[in-house]
Specification:
This protein is 76% helix and 0% strand. The chain is mainly α. The longest helix is centred in the N-terminal third of the chain and has 21 residues, at 25-45. The termini are far apart.
């Protein structure tokens, strides 16, 4: 039974690898962009998930996305500043976000964040 499951998993992995490798760069870029937009929409729909909790659990947050967005804009020669990038990621200005959706971090969150930073 385990052998059969492993064979199925191996076959599915090869099929997925094959399909991915056959994407054109344009198709891959479109897929990546659509996935990123979906991720932003998911984060927007879950405003109760705090940046500090994302950092504790995953090592990145909305601010990280903003910084990456700005860096990639620079790589492409686009004139975007960090405030532009934050507005794209947050769907509003960063000040609006902090005022409406970012409560002060708890002592427990800060301790967990510090522990994560030491890893």
């Amino acid at each position: 039974m385990v052998k059969k499951a492993n064979q199925i998993r191996e076959k599915e992995s090869k099929v997925a690898e094959f399909k991915y490798k056959n994407l054109t760069q344009e198709e891959q870029d479109k897929l990546d962009a659509a996935t990123f937009r979906r991720l932003l929409a998911h984060l927007d729909a879950n405003k109760d998930v705090q940046n500090i909790d994302l950092m504790i659990l995953a090592g990145f947050c909305r601010n990280c996305f903003s910084k990456w967005y700005k860096a990639e804009a620079e790589n492409l020669g686009l004139d975007l500043d960090i405030d532009d990038a934050r507005e794209r990621v947050y769907g509003m200005t960063y000040d609006e976000w902090k005022q409406n959706h970012q409560p002060a971090a708890t002592p427990e969150q800060l301790a967990a964040f510090e522990a994560r930073q030491k890893k």
